[in-house]
Amino acid sequence: MSGKLNLDHRSVEEARVIAKEIAEEVDHFISARSTVSIERTVLRLFGVDGVHDDIPLPNIVVDGLLDAGVLHRGVAFWLCNAIVQTGKTPQEVAELVAKKELSLVDLPVTSEEAVYRTGERLQDAMLDKIFSHRKLRDHYIKKLSEGRKPYLYLIVATGDIYEDVTQARSAARLGADIIAVIRSTGQSLFDFVPYGATREGYGGTYATQENFRIMRAALDEVGEEVGRYIRLCNYCSGLCMPEIAAMGAMERLDVMLNDALYGILFRDINMQRTLIDQAFSRMINSYAGIIINTGEDNYLTTADAVESAHTVLASQFINEQFALLSGLPETQMGLGHAFEMNPELEDGLLLEIAQAQMAREIFPNAPLKYMPPTKHMTGNIFLGHIQDALFNLVSIVTGQGIQLLGMMTEAMHTPHMHDRQLSIENAQYIFRNARHLQDEILFRPDGRIQRRAHTVLTKAVYLLREVKKKSLFTALEEGIFADVKRSRAGGKGLSGVIKRSVDYWNPFECGLRERLQLSIRGEEG
After folding, report:
1. What's the pLDDT tens digit per position in 353-371?
2. Which H or E element spans position 336?
3. 369 in catalytic set
4. Would 229 be classed as within a structural domain?
5. Residue 335's CATH number
6. Structural domains in the chain (count)
7. Residue 262: active-site member
8. Are 99 and 179 found together in one domain?
């Protein structure tokens, strides 16, 4: 079937082929490299946690190996060699290293077979634990059911995890299906993960494993109360992207903002570092059953929604291929887009419908993440509420998956609970009254909506050809996406990129690939 937009499927297929070639070229670059954040993630998956003199133990161990010039072999080898030789646990080894009572590089190398066997045993135990969390999520959903799509996605951002819990429970009782705990401003630029429960944060709450645990327990409790599984979302973007992915997998988060390009464009994180980190983080999210959200919607906050719509689609094609290379299925790809047309534009609603319907038809199995108007919200709360209503209408008419609710007080202040209540009521009213409207609507052949979708698709294919010709790295340097230019050797975090040696070893990468392949063949579990 051609769908309501009568899209040229040859163009869609060409876009996917080109995007795959772009992603594979980057993947070839990635496969020869690791990062300090990936190595810290390996330690966390081995069970290393805590701080020494306020410095996270994973940072102490990895930085020590980096300074010694041996991290290119992978932290797993040095840690497991110490475990075999001392009989200590990974946590105990890390604590001894932090206290300078043990040097990983000064220990003689024991039998490599024993080292690898130890790593594989520890890896199996952690991956089994993560898979058990995935099965527990499935159990809860079967027991309690869940909200209907589009899931109502609501943000809490007080800075205090315990106050976040109070707001999250209230939001769930009002009808929210996903609670997103916004990170404190600037955390994406930390090259370490804060530790423990936190009660101070500006513009949000720190992403820590303890905060994840506290919020997960609270949502499980309120889920039992309301008879609906409540999903938890956080952000595994930034310099600690894979570490936060691992923490989320260990604490049963359900949704993660996990984008290959967002950190490069909007946080000036080095493109090499981010692209390497996203591959491993998405492997973790895939195995944990976590839906990833991508950040293409942000492109339209710096570029025009009419002129740059094709850049959103091109980026979605590339993000899809990066995700597939990491073993992430389409059903976990919350590809991002946004309702960001200028409200003064004639027929802007038609253009929004074209864009949203196009994403739905091109990515039919993805739980698309649809973002509300922000760029053109003025502080007029009455007009803003109407803009959000149109956004909700487009969502239900085009079958979106995840609806990040718009707030009428956008651009004025962090929304109060009553603002969130009005947003939920707005969405529920429209979703209820237009639940099956999409089944009744056809678009006029060669009408404004169809023509707009065809134009955007054609321009996206042309852009992908250009990116393929130049390489993704060069395209990012030239500012093709979001009108933002970044340097291949600039930005934050490049010093944390490591060239792998021929004997590099990451047992979790090996184990995840094996288990994800089994999952694809239906043999996992």
Report:
1. 999 999 999 999 999 999 9
2. strand 336-338
3. yes
4. yes
5. 3.20.20.440
6. 2
7. yes
8. no
